[in-house]
Amino acid sequence: MVVPLIATVAALPISIGGLGVREWAGVLLLAPFGIAEPEALSIEIMAYLIGVATSLVGGLIFLSGREVRPSEVESIDPEV
Predict the structure, then answer these.
(1) 3-state secondary structure the chain
(2) pTM of the full predicted structure?
């Protein structure tokens, strides 16, 4: 329940890319669960970095220009 709320707050147009706002919301929303501020901030920063890393991998795959055509994909059904 916390993750969608943090994503919604980060989407508000009050900072560039939601930086700072996402971390603040994470610290605020994770406090009732007994997570201290430094740990909550670490969680939010790691979540952001994981998102950036996966986006970079996807961007590199896109820039490689390799297309996967349906004829190249192996079929699961042996009769096809």
Answers:
(1) CHHHHHHHHHHCCCCHHHCCHHHHHHHHHHHHHCCCHHHHHHHHHHHHHHHHHHHHHHHHHHHHCCCCCHHHCCCCCCCC
(2) 0.68
